[in-house]
């Protein structure tokens, strides 16, 4: 093959068509189900669709996703990795940061956890974790 030649890929064109079709269906659904006072910007970053195991877990705006996670994100400090390992079996961890006083953990929970912690303002990452796991995982309540 010469330097300036390229190979057509049937797989690539099929994938591009599936992506285009999915995007078109998504935009049509948003337009058909929009509330009267809702403003849609389908080509901007405000729209987001999250899928888990082939199923849509969220379809809407980033700000609404974060709003949905309000009162479901908590912070606590754990003493060591052993405590963190036990903690992780019960709660969905969004992030952990090592600090001098221990491991600072952000996690999501459907209800108020039965451990010493404080409610945190959700970030996009927290909201993403919440949308994927919290609602269908009752072991952390």
Comma- or semicolon-separated keywords:
141 residues; alpha+beta; two-stranded antiparallel ribbon; 36% helix; 26% strand; disordered C terminus
Q: How would you portray this structure in words?
A:
The chain is an alpha+beta fold. The protein has a domain at 68-140. The protein has four helices and six strands; from the N terminus they run αββαβαβββα. It has helices at residues 10-33, 62-68, 81-90, 124-133, and strands at 47-52, 55-61, 73-78, 92-99, 102-108, 118-119. It has a four-stranded antiparallel sheet with strand order 4-5-3-6. A hairpin with a 2-residue loop joins strand 4 (92-99) and strand 5 (102-108). Helix 2 (62-68) packs across helix 4 (124-133). The longest helix is centred in the N-terminal third of the chain and has 24 residues, at 10-33. The protein starts with 9 loop residues before the first helix and ends in an 8-residue tail after the last helix. Mean pLDDT is 79; it is low at 137-141.
Question: What's a concise summary of this model?
Answer:
The chain has 141 residues and is of the alpha+beta class. The chain is 36% helix and 26% strand.
């Amino acid at each position: 093959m010469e330097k300036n030649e390229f190979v057509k890929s049937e797989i690539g064109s099929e994938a591009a068509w599936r992506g285009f079709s999915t995007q078109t269906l998504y935009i049509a659904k948003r337009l058909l189900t929009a509330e009267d006072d809702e403003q849609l910007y389908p080509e901007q970053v405000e729209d987001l669709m999250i899928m888990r195991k082939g199923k849509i877990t969220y379809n809407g705006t980033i700000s609404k996703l974060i709003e949905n996670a309000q009162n479901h994100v908590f912070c606590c400090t754990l003493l060591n990795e052993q405590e963190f390992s036990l903690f992780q079996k019960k709660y969905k961890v969004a992030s952990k940061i090592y600090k001098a006083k221990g491991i600072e953990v952000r996690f999501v929970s459907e209800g108020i956890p039965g451990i010493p912690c404080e409610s945190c303002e959700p970030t996009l990452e927290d909201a993403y974790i919440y949308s994927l796991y919290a609602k269908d995982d009752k072991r952390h309540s």
